[in-house]
Design brief:
heterodimer, A: mainly alpha, two-stranded antiparallel sheet, 14 helices, globular, disordered C terminus, B: alpha+beta, Alpha-Beta Plaits, four-stranded mixed beta sheet, two-stranded antiparallel ribbon
Chain lengths: 420, 261
């Protein structure tokens, strides 16, 4: 065994088997290349400006906003699992908690990184904290996402400090144990923050009176999309977690989580998805029949432009909503691993499609009668930055899986997890 | 007394010559960037073209100058800006953009129903010698911020200074005229104080053939249009509202670029 491989093995949790270092590096290599290309593309955008993208005055938001909304929705599994475990005391979901935190951290940090490229003057980001407009949904999003990313960081640190070598430092050990006591509080704070920013991301578009395709009436100051975004995020977050763990199990060839946990997650996801589909259907009917006509827009106007016809609406609500909700709750399919994972994948596609429709279709559709339907194709810099976020996620998760006890049964080193 | 400045644009008089766009660009130091396209250029005043969708002798066309409508009620861009870089000036009714505070998030552009806001995709640049023609009263905007029409606010300041120097509290309406109004060769664009019932512009705005674009969304824009042609007035509504939907076109990219200075 080479000295490098020997040193590497000392960082892996005792009793855990991991692939050899060269094999691990070979796995990481393509992702590192993808990340490097994306970082270069992001650098071009920061150095030369957003003229490196294909966004324009009409398509002022593009691929990156879709990415932000999409991964933040998928990352909702982090706060929701914490909520279920620590607030609702669903201890059976504890084995998946660490993975939920890592996935959430990846999603949110990736989204924040992309947001920093997506603004024209990133160095002025602090202005939002200094001159906040309390009427703006984006202010709420900025505050909540910043705070929640900090919370996720604090939740990630104890997992990080459980590394075999880091644990040898007494101060780290003490710090980790003290921090662990805070985790239930962090979970509660994270839940509160997440409810608000998931909702505000929906509100971001729902308040746009000037974009009738997205505008919704609501309750008090919140448009209906505020609540729909929360519901869809908590419905699909657990599905995404299931998918991530299933992919990791496939790649590593190990069973990491008991099937009971999957079944439970699937059931939760299915029930919530059913509630979401019902709420979304009612909201769509109200919007088509009342909200939109009252603003002078006939509902059919939105669906005459290809490819955004009514099949998109059908796909989003029925194929990616009702069907997975049924598959995840109907006992026969819910018990079957294949059906369950397929349904989880459909649910994730559904939430991504919803975010795509809300961001891209909203901007593509004309509002003025002499406007025309416009299309937009992302530049390579936008696509590369998009790819870099995915690569970043894979790399961080791979490193976490290799060197940290992500699943509770990994080694005895996390035996002090509360309740264990 | 607070003013509510607004405009009435007579579309029957507009010939689409683009003088207003040129004057606006010159007044506000809008850079002429060769790399900008119709979709990435900065045109705080943009003349667009619409037709009745018919062919031959029945075909009719109209030119529609589009600028910030200075919405009065629940001003979309003011509400959404996360760092208060946009404000509705209570003293004038003008929606002001502060590029110095703008983050460049472009949420306001997404919110604007009229697509009347523009992002500085490039660093401003002028060809050699052109910088000598810049208006010293207007700051140039940097890359990465949003801008829009502000009813030539620098001229409002100049009018106030002139009034103050003369010992008057109120400005002389003749001293505050935006560049586009001044430049229009047919007098199609008129500017005035909509809170003054005796202002000819207010009376024009109340005429039977005056209308506002997308009035039903309830943002109370302060730019009015007027036309004796019914098909033109129908353009105010969304695309599918008329019995025989009006086929309309955006101003062709090449033409827009020619007009864009």
């Amino acid at each position: 065994m080479s000295s490098m491989a020997l040193a590497d093995s000392r960082w892996i949790a005792r009793g855990e088997e991991r692939v050899s270092l060269p094999r691990f590096l070979a796995w990481l290599a393509p992702w590192i290349v993808l990340l490097a290309i994306g970082v270069y593309a992001a650098g071009l955008c920061l150095f030369y400006g957003l003229n490196q993208t294909n966004m324009d005055n009409r398509f002022a938001f593009g691929l990156w906003i879709f990415l932000d909304l999409g991964i933040i929705a998928l990352g909702a599994g982090a706060f929701f699992t914490g909520f279920l475990v620590y607030i609702l005391k669903r201890a059976e979901l504890r084995p998946i908690l660490n993975t939920a935190v890592v996935v959430g951290f990846i999603c949110y940090s990736g989204a924040v990184a992309i947001l920093m490229i997506d603004v024209g003057q990133p160095l002025r980001a602090w202005f939002t904290f200094w001159h906040p407009n309390t009427h703006s949904m984006l202010t709420e999003v900025t505050f909540c996402i910043s705070c929640y990313l900090t919370v996720l960081g604090l939740e990630y640190v104890p997992i990080l400090l459980r590394n075999r070598q880091l644990r040898k430092l007494p101060s780290f050990l003490v710090f980790e144990r003290q921090l662990h006591k805070l985790v239930p509080v962090l979970a509660a704070v994270g839940t509160l923050l997440s409810f608000f920013h998931q909702g505000s991301l929906g509100g971001l578009y729902g308040v746009l009176r000037g974009r009738p395709f997205a505008f919704r009436e609501g309750i008090f100051i919140w448009p209906s999309t505020f609540f729909l975004f929360i519901l869809s995020a908590i419905a699909t977050g657990p599905s995404f977690l299931m998918l991530v763990v299933a992919i990791v199990e496939r790649v590593t060839g190990r069973n990491l989580v008991a099937q009971d946990v999957f079944r439970r997650l699937g059931r939760i996801s299915g029930v919530l998805l059913g509630v979401y589909v019902a709420a979304k259907s009612i909201d769509t009917l109200i919007w088509l029949n009342f909200t939109s006509p009252s603003e002078g827009f006939a509902p059919w106007q939105y669906y005459i432009y290809k490819p955004f016809g009514t099949p998109v609406l059908f796909t989003e609500i029925v194929l990616f909503g009702l069907v997975p909700a049924f598959l995840l709750t109907f006992p026969r399919t819910a018990e079957h691993r294949g059906w369950r994972l397929s349904a989880a994948a459909l649910a994730c596609c559904g939430v991504l499609m919803n975010r795509f429709v809300m961001t891209v279709q909203t901007l593509a559709l004309p509002t003025l009668s002499f406007d025309e339907f416009l299309s937009y194709t992302p530049s390579w810099q936008e696509l590369a930055s998009f790819g870099a976020v995915i690569a970043y996620g894979v790399i961080v998760y791979s490193l976490s899986y290799r060197y940290l006890p992500l699943f509770s049964r990994s080694g005895g080193e996390d035996s002090h997890v509360p309740g264990h | 007394m607070s003013a509510r400045y607004g405009m009435v644009i007579d579309l029957d008089r507009c010939t689409g010559c683009g003088s207003c766009m040129v004057a606006c660009a010159a007044e506000n130091n809008v850079p002429a960037l060769p790399q900008a396209t119709a979709r990435t250029g900065i045109t705080p005043m943009l003349v667009r073209k619409a037709s009745n969708g018919k062919e031959g002798n029945l075909r009719r066309e109209a030119f529609i100058p589009i600028l910030c409508m200075h919405c009065e009620h629940e001003t979309p861009c003011v509400h959404v800006c996360p760092q208060q870089a946009v404000e509705l000036d209570a003293a004038t009714g003008i929606v002001m953009q502060m590029p110095q505070r703008c983050l460049g998030c472009r949420y306001c552009m997404t919110a604007c129903p009229y697509h009347a806001r523009y992002f500085n995709w490039w660093d401003p640049a002028w060809s050699a010698g052109m910088e000598k023609s810049l208006n010293p009263g207007v700051a140039t905007r940097m890359r990465g911020v949003v801008e829009k029409c502000n009813f030539c606010h620098v001229r409002f300041h100049a009018a106030k200074e002139k009034a103050a120097a003369a010992g008057r509290r109120e400005i002389d309406p003749a001293d505050y005229i935006p560049a586009c109004v001044e430049a229009c060769p047919t007098g199609a664009i008129r500017f005035g104080n909509l809170s003054d019932p005796n202002d000819p512009v207010t009376q024009d705005a109340r005429s039977a053939n005056a209308f506002r674009l997308l009035a039903r969304i309830g943002t109370e824009p302060k730019v009015y249009y007027k036309s004796n042609e019914e098909w033109v007035r129908r353009l105010a509504e969304s695309g599918g509202q008329s019995d025989s939907p009006t086929h309309t076109t955006r101003i062709p990219a090449q033409q827009a670029e020619e007009l864009h200075v």
